[in-house]
Amino acid sequence: MSLGLIASDIPLAERYDLALVDLDGVAYRGHEPIPNAATGLGGARAAGMRLVFVTNNASREPQSVASQLTELDIPTSSDEVMTAAQAAAALLRTRLEPGARVLVVGGAGLFTAVHDAGFVIVESADEEPVAVAQGFAPELGWAQLAEAAYAIQRGAWHVASNLDLSLPTARGFAPGNGSLVRAVQVATGVEPSSAGKPSPTMYHLAVERAGASSPLVVGDRLDTDLAGARSGGYPGLHVLTGVNGGRDAVLAEPGLRPHYIGADLLSLLEPHEAPVQAAEGWWTSGPSAARVTDGALELTGPQGVDLIRAACGAAWATVDAGGTVDADTVPELAVGNP
């Protein structure tokens, strides 16, 4: 699949039969709705696109997630939610037999997923668990992290639901599961396995569950959502409502690049233009253009998604040809999102 942006002459909701949609920063922000999310997803459903919400959050039950989405005017059933807790349980099954002892450090969603996978849940390293399943929960403290460290030092397999260092909330970015996992990793010197994005495990499970033939990944984070799309061989739509903005996309390494860029979830209902190389090194998209000259990014045209697409075309082509782009010459590239 192309390492650059690709075009779709029809709305994405008509081209793809399933959207694998991230939650935090895409469908909602903390407990607050994101503008146009309900309209975009409702329109996608009306066009025949199915939805599965795929989240690195392992603390909550799928039904709890579905209820929150429904309250935000995004009607959702629990079987339309795939959590990192479910993916972590699936990863545990690849090496452990049912009945194996697992120390769970996390929230209700992780406890349920590990239990439903047939494992015996223990609370202490002294109960000799063969694995530690670690996921985020706001109530986690030092005592639980210490038990995880003790068990891992004694040989338990460390499985993390995800490695996100930060977590978007209505008040800003808070420490995510990756930050807590890193504390255990520093204490033990053992690198954990991870079931969450950017591993494509959850995407594969969701696609298999839905029986989809043409899935599209939708996310706001390049290092998890879009990297997982690339590693899994799926096209990815980067919406600019969460962690990573347009500047991040322009500077993205090849393995983190999206295939499409949109301001928000309304972009599921729109065709997408790919930047086109023009004369004198310029790349154009709509009324906007960009080029790289002696490592410096030059831009012309109004702020918006077209300018970001043009900048991505120019910057990515330069890097792929062996050149460099001076990050100091790349502005924030706003699209007007709240």
From TrEMBL:
Q: What UniProt keywords are attached to this protein's entry? A: Hydrolase
Q: Which Pfam families match?
A: Hydrolase_6, Hydrolase_like
Q: Which Gene3D superfamilies match?
A: HAD superfamily/HAD-like (3.40.50.1000)
EC number(s) on record? 3.-.-.-
Q: Which GO terms describe its molecular function?
A: hydrolase activity
Instruction: Check the record and name the InterPro entries matching this protein.
Output: HAD-like_sf, HAD-SF_hydro_IA, HAD-SF_hydro_IIA, HAD_sf
* Stored SUPFAM superfamilies: HAD-like
Record NCBIfam families: HAD-SF-IA-v1, HAD-SF-IIA
Query: What PANTHER family does the record tag this protein with?
Result: 4-NITROPHENYLPHOSPHATASE-RELATED (PTHR19288), D-GLYCEROL 3-PHOSPHATE PHOSPHATASE (PTHR19288:SF95)
**Name of the featured protein:** Hydrolase YutF
Q: What is the lineage of its organism?
A: Bacteria, Bacillati, Actinomycetota, Actinomycetes, Micrococcales
